[in-house]
Amino acid sequence: MTNSTDRVLPRRALGSTGPEVSALGLGCMGMSDLYGPADEAESVATIHAAVDAGVTLLDTGDFYGMGHNELLIARALRERRREDVAISVKFGALRDADGGWHGNDGRPEAVRNFLAYTLRRLGTDHVDVYRPARLDPAVPIEETVGAIKEEVEKGRVRHIGLSEVGAETLRRAHAVHPVADLQIEYSLVSRGIERSILPTARELGVGVTAYGVLSRGLISGHWTASRQPTDFRAVSPRFQGDNLDHNLALVEALRAVAAEKGVTVAQLAIAWVLAQGEDIVPLVGARRRDRLTEALGALDVTLTAADLARIEAAVPADAVAGDRYAPALMAHLDSER
User: Fold this and answer.
1) CB 246 within 8 A of CB 321
2) If you placed Cys at 106, which of 56, 76, 139, 318 could pair as Cys (CB 3.0 to 4.6 Å)?
3) What is the mean pLDDT for each group of 10 consecutive residues in the chain (337 residues)?
């Protein structure tokens, strides 16, 4: 099928060694997990719309819906050409049938096991970027990356990535094999990587795929104080009580800037991340075609130095109230942060 639009999306390289991909990637997690029920037909239609619009980076995890997300992507790609997309897969998170979380497994034998199942579910002979979802504190990162390197040499993995690790771990991993990109949360209200992680990535030539660019919908412009989350955001500190009131006030300040630019709040927030460097590829977690269309509109937003100053005055660094995750999740999700 040919593209449904004549627009050609800008492209960016994932670091100095990774593939060239569309400047926005599609994060598929919410189509299977953590954000409540999703319409599977609409999810497939959204993936189709993204690929037809020129999105070439699809991000998933083998633990999203305990394999469901990979099967969903495989279903969607039956009607598209595999070579038109780069699939990024996170592995290692241990879960149970109740949806619980039980740490991460980065052992070499686990790497080989997880990858075998991923290739079968995706119906492909290779993964474009393969990365441990989180650091396994019991396994040196050199051993985990060394095992992925063996899969690169066998042709089953094209590029190695990392996720949610600090500068020191990034250096150690990169010494074993070039790391294409680091997937990590980065948005107007989550700017911690600017202190040491982002400078280290740039020094090493490692790209950044930024997730959480709308802070799980908090700064999308669509969240309201009366909305009651029924998914994992129900225990997220940023969505609780006075924190939520404070954070939505920041969104309203951002909305005023967006209105003057003639764009939506979400588009402005995504455009801000895009403007932080050509080595950053934001991931948007659209589950519906209308949200995808809105997100793609951010690529048409040009921000001047004055615009950037106004945005950061509306939402200063560290102005957000509340942590990114509930305390019970911080230990394994933010082990180096």
Assistant:
1) yes
2) 139
3) 58 97 96 85 97 97 96 95 96 92 96 98 98 97 98 98 97 98 96 96 98 91 78 79 89 95 97 98 95 96 97 92 65 42
325 catalytically annotated: no
The residue assigned the tokens 């990365």 is: 131
pTM summary value: 0.91
Q: Are the C-beta atoms of residues 145 and 175 closer than 8 Å to each other? A: no
Distance CA 94, CA 16 (A): 31
CA 247 to chain centre: 22
Q: Cα separations (Å) of 127 from 7, 60, 174, 197, 325?
A: 27, 11, 19, 25, 29
Alpha-carbon gap, residue 89 to 159, rounded angstroms: 11
Picking from 216, 284, 211, 220, the residue whose alpha carbon sits closest to that of residue 258 is 220
Structure tokens at 114: 């997880």
Phi, psi of 236 (to 5 degrees): -80, 125
DSSP 3-state of 140 = coil
